[in-house]
Amino acid sequence: MSTPHSAPPSPPSSPPGASGAEGEPRHAGWLELFFDLVFVAFVAQLSHGLHGDPGWREFGVFLGLYFPPWWMWANLTVSANLFQDDSARRRLAMLSAMLCLAVMAAAVPEADGDRGPAYALGYAGTRLVLLALWWPATRFPAPGRIPRWRPLTYCLLSALLWAGSAAVPAPWRYPVWAGLLLAEMVLLLTARGRGIPRRVHTGHLVERVGLFVIIVLGESVLGLITSTDHTWTVQAGVVAAIGFVLLAALWWSYFDFASTAAERVIGTASAREAYLLARDVGGFLHFFVTAAVISMAAGLATAVDDSAHDHLARGTVWALAGGLAAYHAAHALIGLRFGRPAREVAVWAVPGVVVPLLVVLGSDVLAPWLVVLLLAAEAIAHLLYAKAAMARRAEGVTG
């Protein structure tokens, strides 16, 4: 993960900007919030690619184009978490990364075609930004010093190879991209958190991930609203209203239970385990959480558009119901990673995955409003179960 820093004026025992205990309140800065705005555009571009009746190719392109910017967001988020640095140098680096990501977002509609080189060069630029943020951390005295070969391979070499991939013709450049991303993940996984000079700040990390979840939920709400622009009918209004209930239930359960559990588990872990949990849950598993919501955003928007039809196209239902199933499956993996017993997780995860998949199977005979209603009912049932389970645990503690 990236670690931005200013060069220390003298050899410190810990990096500058790393002061502040875990219990000290810490919130996202204005720069981080401004930086997130580029992902509003990114999410809109990606969601648009799943509108209509997407097939397996469209889903594959969506996941392939979403992972690199998400991966960069996770890197930069952890860097901001580990070091509180508001220097002009870091601001310029983050703004440069934002510009590179904007180029990638603009390239998304044709990234699997003529705009592929722009997408690759944009990502290469973000790796150079990471190098600029990592490099000062290599000058710290042991044990906080990061070996220089890590940023040189993880950032610089990756940037050069991504830039070189722009010259590789389609479709051969896509396996190259996949290989480069895999290499980055292997480097990170094999490091196992060694060289991280301080523990992650749990509150800040949970807040940052939660803000990204708000971004993707916001795209879902926006899709519901804009779809009614050209489908101003009673049926469209009903589907949009039920869709909003579905999103509200997801928001409620996520921020009352998922984020609370994350803060509790990561906050009580050892410094190294806290970093590994942040990497696995915030970096890897939340990719699937947020990708699932983006998919649902596209499915909901199409459901409003097609609300007058007898039934929704199968690709639309996969985007919507399949997205909800993937959302619950990702949270099940998060629960297991947090050490919850498999039997306890299965009680809510199995219905959360099976019910949406049953909706997919029966979608040919279900009206659009009924598809959305069944999914909203499942989300509400999930929320009520979580609230009841929390109440039972609270009674057990007080009793």
Automatic annotation (TrEMBL):
It comes from the Bacteria. Residues 1-15 have a biased composition (Pro residues). The keyword Cytoplasm does not apply. Signal peptide: none annotated. Keywords: Membrane, Transmembrane, Transmembrane helix. This is Low temperature requirement protein LtrA. Coiled coil: none annotated. It comes from Streptomyces nymphaeiformis.
